Amino acid sequence: MNKLLKDALKVNGNIIIPEYLLKYGSELNLEMDEFILLVYLINQKDLVAFDVNDLSSKLYIESNRVLELISSLNEKNYISIEMKKTSGVIEEFISTDLFFNKIESMIISTKDEVSNNDIYSIFESEFGRTLSPTETEIISNWIESDIPEELIKEALKEAILSGVHNMRYIDKILFEWTKKGYKEASDIKRKPEKEEKIEEIYDYDWLNE
Fold first, then answer.
1. 189, 195 Cβ separation under 8 angstroms
2. Does residue 121 have a pLDDT over 80?
């Protein structure tokens, strides 16, 4: 192949496929044509004019099919049609804001999942064994109750320092700290004036609290 032609093909009219599209592609449930249209739209710096013929010529997809794709992506809440006044004339444009909101929520959800998995790994490391289904459920309940991850880790540390590898003990610690309004490690007062005896904590019925 002619080198000049080859170099031109490498740089001319390139469209970038973001890594997040490859990572979350299966979850987005996109057909190939939908994927192509979406990639084109997110590569544009500004809103894209709702011009079916223009999109058809640029994407090499028939006009009727372009209309179907726009309708489908709109139903999936990946794009929206916005009205904008330009030069005194109201025109329709395609916005991808909804799609970027979707990707943002997927990224945040993935980070939360990794963070939560880290908590389970920390517990297993400190306990020196795999957590039982019941223990995993208890940790999940703490997380769902919006107990800060930092506080859960501190409660685990408190239990380990006391030589106790018991979820009821940790649950009691978190119950007391939550009741006192503790939100982070700096709120915790180590060595209170009077500690509850471990025997009393074992009798705490955390399931029926």
1. no
2. yes
The token duo for 167 is 């979820």
CATH topology of domain 12-99: Arc Repressor Mutant, subunit A (1.10.10)
Q: Using an 8 Å Cβ cutoff, are 95 and 47 in contact?
A: yes
pLDDT digits (tens, 9 = 90+) for 173-206: 999 888 888 877 777 765 444 444 444 444 444 4
pLDDT score for 73:
96
pLDDT score recorded for residue 204? 46
Tokens describing residue 32: 């190939």
- pTM score of the predicted model: 0.52
Task: Please state, in angstroms and as integers, the Cα–Cα distance from residue 194 to each residue in 1, 89, 172, 189, 191, following that order.
Answer: 84, 76, 15, 12, 8
Over 186-198, what HEC string results? HHCCCCCCCCCCH
In the chain, residues under CATH classification 1.10.10.10 are: 12-99
111-118 long-range contacts (CB < 8 A, ≥24 apart) are 115/149, 116/140, 116/143, 116/149
User: 106-208 has which fold?
Assistant: Arc Repressor Mutant, subunit A (1.10.10)
